[in-house]
Structure formats: C-alpha cells, structure tokens
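User: Sequence in, structure out. Go.
Assistant: Echoing your sequence, followed by the structure tokens.
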Amino acid sequence: MSKVVVMDHPLIQHKITYLRDKNTGSKEFRELLNEISMLMAYEVTRDLPLTEVEIETPICKAKSYVLAGKKLGVVPILRAGLGMIDGILELVPHARVGHIGLYRDPKTLEPVEYYCKLPSDVTERDLIVVDPMLATGGSAAAAIQFIKNRGCKSIRMMNLIAAPEGIERVQKAHPDVDIYVACVDEKLNSHGYIVPGLGDAGDRLFGTK
C-alpha cells in the first residue's frame, strides 16, 4: 500500500487557513496556492537520488551533489491544477509539464477525459500529478491510469486538501502511488465537496462560477 504524507509545517498550515477563507479573493487565492505548492514541493522531492560530481569553487576543487536518475515531470489535472505549477517550477525549472483535462459528471461524480498531453519522454521521468483537491478520488485515479497507460511507472500525487474517501479510492486503484497532502479533512458532502474544504478550487482560482 502507498504511503500518505501529511505536511503539517506551520507555514503551510498558516497559508491553508487563508486559502480556505471565503473572503479571500482570486488574486490572493492564486498567490497562496502558488506559495503552498512551492513549500510542499520541498517534501515531495525530499528523497530524489543524488550523484556526486566534482566542481571547482573560487578556492579549490571540491566534490558536491546534483540530482541523479530520472528527470522530473509535473502533470496538473485541469483546470485547478494549473495553479500549482508555477510554485513547483520555481524549484525545478527544468521539469517538463504535461496536462490532463478531466471534468466530473455532476450526476455520477465520475471523471470524463477530454484532453491528455504528456511529454514525449514520459516513460523516462518521475511524474508528480497535482490537483488542489482530492475529493472523491475519481479524477485523480483516472488521471494516474491515463499516465500509466502511456508507460510511466514512477508517479506521485500532490494535493492540498484531501477527503478520506479520495485517499482510499486512489490507494485502492494505485497502491504504488504515494500521496502528499497538506490537510486531510473530515468527509465529503452529498454533492461530493470536501467538508470543510475550500469550495471549488477552480472557480476561486480563476474567478468563475
């Protein structure tokens, strides 16, 4: 079974509080989402392998470390996942970005795919799939499966807020995919929204209803 890492860093929790607040406008929401994503990316990439290299400082030659192994890729689930990209790219600017477009059927709450574009070398990359919310888990599980269908085997999931139901569904469908979240909330309501959550992340991010 995959692991679930809950990031309880004070800075993340502080910013999540303002992100949840219904009085936070779209501009501030975007800024907070970007900042939280950057902070979370430190933890998500904590165990990336390193290799030793020799460099020359202004003083002398020295041995130091650089990232080894596969290259990174980030795949936001459209559209709310787009708000997490810039923060991650601040840390790993050479990461390639793919996109997966899904929408949730309002009656069945099941994901429907409308777009999927991944880097051509996706099989050679460690991928981080990002979406602010992990609610029912249907979209996340489907997105991960779309990526696996294209040959990628190294995948992590990164969400800000998750419901227990969503975590359970992703773990059941993909026991090899670790999940990184800032908060695990109480439950889902009858409409499939996380309680207490923060509402519709896409609408709040882009100022739409």
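User: And one key feature?
Assistant: The CA atoms of residues 135 and 193 lie 6 Å apart.
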